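Field reference: sequence -> structure
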Amino acid sequence: MTPELRRSILSAIAQDGGNVAARLAEQYGVSRQSASAWLAKLKQEGGIASIGVGRGVRYHLATLAQVRRVYPRAGLSEDRVWREAIAPALHDLPANVRDIWNYAVTEMVNNAIDHSGSERVTVELLRDALNTTVYIADEGEGIFLKIQRALNLYDPREAILELAKGKLTTDPANHTGEGIFFSSKVMDAFDIRSGTLHFMHDEWEADVLLERPANAPGTLVLMRLANDSRRTLQEVFDQFAAPEEYTFAKTIVPVRLAQHEGEKLVSRSQAKRLTMRFERFQTVVLDFAGVEEIGQAFADEVFRVFHQAHPATALLPIHMTPAVEKMFKRVVKG
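Structure field:
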């Protein structure tokens, strides 16, 4: 069984554990018996498990490693959490994957130590044959409320927009504000849940903000990465660095996060919230995916007024609908 075939079978099971042998037989043009033999081999190796018999059997990915540790926050160090709870479960993964996990776990644990004020920090790891997922939770004030208070924002949803920009910290003397930004970019999936808000980022879809009815205490960070990912930390850092420099000079901002449910982006105040702290970057890519249209005042404030005040910062809009592009060109051309 080739690595490609193995991953394809595991992915198919992860998506739907029912009728797997028949689906594989049709997909690869083999007999159902051959497909069943593949599944039997993966089950014998411990990568998958099953429930039921015959045509009613359902498969699922087996848990290969599971760790849960609860630490008192006072006196805790992030490298201790990495060495004790996470690194042993990942020792056989490729070096680039371990490097990514080392960076992201220590950054997120350090955030919980320095910013949450929680009595405890909980770390949990789940690994299967495809992916590893790590959860880091605290019982503190909650990241979005803390940012809202620190930046005097009107709505905690605005805190998510600020996180998406990067270079945000409530403790500039001790932090650069890069940890959450780059951790979200190196992972296949990165979620933050706090209060009634749930921010999701993954490699396939634009950033998404959900509002939940339950008010969850503290902050929960979820991170997921493929065990065979070929991504490297350096290539992700390079995407956001200026040419020939090693600085965090470029950011990508999902404009949809400035658009609260039921609103349209029409006012100058919305534009000012969007462009807040843009001047800290050399280049800001404005991703308009999910934004159908914008108003003249909003466009003027972003593309003319901000540019005149901060000519050293380049604004590059992408994924514009015809309506957004029309307004953009109207403002730029004057």
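Note: The chain has three domains: 3-61, 65-235, 240-333.
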